[in-house]
Design a protein that fits this description.
about 140 residues; alpha+beta; Maf protein; 5 helices; 3 strands; globular; CinA_C
Length: about 140
């Protein structure tokens, strides 16, 4: 956890645009820090579109940010199921007062490769969305 924040804050001057990050690795952290409903997690699983969307909305609600991204996935090597294999990653993006966009990424490789693919996709897609919104 925390790779997206690390990539953002590696950039000089990031304090001008990066507000905060939430590492909500466990279900209780999702509930406590982002206000995700435990019932939602129990109904859909932590790795799901509804939970990713609730996470991204919670990130905006608990910050001063204009944009937020949330990621929940199975990086492996264990933990996968036939319905949600290792490499399943749900990402959610939202601009304040706008509809969220939720995307499923099917990554592959080692645990570190899956995590790197998710971070790369998250930052690339967030950059695209921000650029599209300001164009």
């Amino acid at each position: 956890g925390g790779l997206i924040a690390a990539c953002c804050t590696d950039q000089p001057g990031s304090s001008a645009w990066f507000d905060r990050g939430f590492v909500t690795y466990s279900n209780p952290a999702k509930v406590e820090m982002l206000g995700v409903s435990l019932a939602l997690i129990e109904q859909h699983g932590a790795v799901s579109a509804p939970v990713a969307e609730a996470m991204v909305r919670g990130a905006l609600q608990h910050s001063h940010a204009e944009w937020a991204v949330a990621v929940t996935g199975i990086a492996g090597p264990g933990g996968g199921t036939p319905d949600k294999p290792v490499g399943t990653v749900w990402l959610a993006f939202v601009q304040r007062d706008q509809a969220a966009k939720v995307v499923c990424l099917h990554a592959s490789g080692s645990r570190s490769e899956i995590r790197a693919q998710a971070v790369r996709f998250a930052l690339d897609h967030l950059g695209y969305l921000v650029g599209s919104a300001t164009a």
